[in-house]
Design goal:
Layout (H helix, E strand, L loop, with lengths): L9 H11 L1 H9 L1 E3 L8 H20 L9 H12 L3 H29 L7 H23 L4 H13 L7 H9 L6 H31 L13 H9 L8 E3 H26 L29 H9 L9 H15 L3 H4 L12 H22 L4 H32 L3
Antiparallel strand pairs: 1-2
Bound molecules: protoporphyrin IX containing FE.
């Protein structure tokens, strides 16, 4: 083992550590990362760190929060925000991280879709990722209820009501979920338990599963080239670093991840200190009141697209009630991303720019989701409802078209 002497350059410093530390002896033989990836591949680590920020800031909030309908609002808005030293900081860190983590999750998901990273041996990475997305959605929803403001209460009312649309068991299910006939104290305490205990535990387990599923197929690359990791690693170790197509996970790859992470953290803390309001709905600064319904009820921005799919069906079609149509479409919207690896019928892993029809499909999907998000926040009146309807139908059509679009690309390439 080489002896560490004073390094003359950063490169030499890395080389020394690469060749000497015990950690590297493990890391280098085990973990190699393709070289041909960009900053989008750092989003996973950004997510892991943002989740840690949520856990730590949440633990501080937990010391003063009171899960009781008579105390919850004041414990957040007076005790934490005004009386506890730096309580405001932890609340803003928690609220901003909760919002930003969804932005990063969406970027991470759409990177996966663009580069076809859910295919051929990577299905389990995708499925564990989607399970994380669903659990995070439940975590976001349950957390939004805790300050017990007007939007907390009414969003909980609307969302729990949806389960009433399930045939036969619907009405009983709503009462079971709420623990009461209405959204009430029992609802708050059980969502509190879910938010601070069961869901974070599930998320930690799922992150473990997500990382485990990544181990064998390795991450995808920008060109989706199949790599012989052993041969490339040999090349790297024998000094051919430039021509090798892999880099060691530690410290080379992680140093790149940390660079992206640092930029993210600057952006994040800028939001925490100067623009925290974007993550707080003004209506939620009024205490929950079951006698006063807010003029417009809407969820957090990251649920708006699926909320608009639900709301888009605002008239009965062929004798089927608008509510039932919306509910079915909402069910599809929440499950369909899970099915992407099976709906994509192109046998090759390729980035979207090498699959012309899929590329168009990808950008149409993205635009449709943005339209749904924008109109999900607007009051459902006049032209808004009509655009919402078209965008909701388009969402379903886009996914129904995926098998045909991907098959057509494969045919044109002669792959099938
Ligand atoms: C807290 C949530 C999550 C964490 C901490 C996380 C973490 C990671 C990490 C560290 C990687 C490897 C590096 C990278 O490509 O970024 C990764 C890859 C991946 N993740 Fe996630 N992820 C999360 C959520 C998701 C979600 C919601 C999806 C979408 C369904 C997803 C799908 C994928 C896919 C397909 C890959 C493989 C990328 C490739 O092969 O290039 N992940 N994830």
């Amino acid at each position: 083992m080489a002896k560490i002497t004073k390094a003359n350059s950063v490169g030499e410093w890395f080389d020394q550590r690469l060749n000497t530390t015990a950690l590297n002896k493990v890391m280098m033989t085990e973990y190699w990362i393709p070289k041909d990836i960009n900053f989008l591949w750092a989003m996973g680590v950004v997510l892991a760190v943002t989740f840690k920020i949520l856990v730590i800031s949440g633990i501080f909030l937990l010391m003063y929060y009171k899960p009781d309908v008579n105390l919850a609002f004041d414990s957040v808005n007076y005790t934490i925000m005004q009386e506890v030293a730096y309580g405001w900081l932890f609340r803003h860190m928690h609220g901003v991280a909760a919002s930003v983590i969804f932005l990063i999750i969406y970027i991470h998901m759409f990177t996966g879709i663009y580069y076809g990273s859910y295919k051929k041996g990577r299905e389990m990475i995708w499925i564990s990722g989607m399970l994380l997305f669903m659990t995070f959605s439940a975590e976001g929803f349950s957390g939004y209820m805790l300050p017990w403001g007007q939007m907390s209460y009414w969003a909980a009312m609307v969302i729990t009501n949806l389960f009433g649309g399930i045939p036969v068991i619907g009405d009983a299910l709503v009462i079971w979920i709420r623990g009461d006939f209405n959204v009430a104290d029992a609802t708050l305490t059980r969502f509190f338990m879910l938010h601070v205990f069961l869901l974070p535990l599930a998320i930690m387990g799922l992150i473990g599963l997500h990382f485990y599923t990544l181990r064998i197929p390795h991450v995808n690359t920008q060109t989706s080239e199949e790599l012989d990791f052993d041969a490339e690693a040999e090349k790297y170790l024998s000094g051919n670093k430039k021509s090798a197509k892999v880099i060691p996970f530690w410290p080379v790859f992680l140093s790149k991840d940390f660079a992206v992470l640092s930029i993210f953290l600057i952006f994040y803390f800028y939001l925490v200190f100067f623009h925290f309001n974007f993550a707080m709905d003004p209506v939620n600064f009024d205490p929950a009141d079951n006698m006063v319904t807010p003029a417009h009820i809407y969820p957090e921005w990251y649920f708006l697209w699926s909320y608009e799919v639900l709301r888009g069906f605002y008239f009965d079609i062929l004798g089927i009630k608008a509510f039932d149509l919306g509910l079915m479409a909402f069910g599809v919207a929440n499950g369909i991303f899970l099915a992407i690896p099976f709906l994509d019928r192109d046998p090759d892993i390729l980035p979207a720019y090498k699959r012309p029809r899929f590329n168009i499909w990808f950008w149409i999907l993205l635009v449709d989701l943005i339209v749904l998000t924008v109109f999900g926040k607007l009051p459902p009146e006049g032209i808004n409802s009509q655009i919402g309807f078209v965008a909701a139908v388009a969402f379903l059509v886009i996914f129904a078209a995926l098998p045909f679009v991907t098959r057509a690309d494969a045919k044109a390439r002669g792959a099938v």
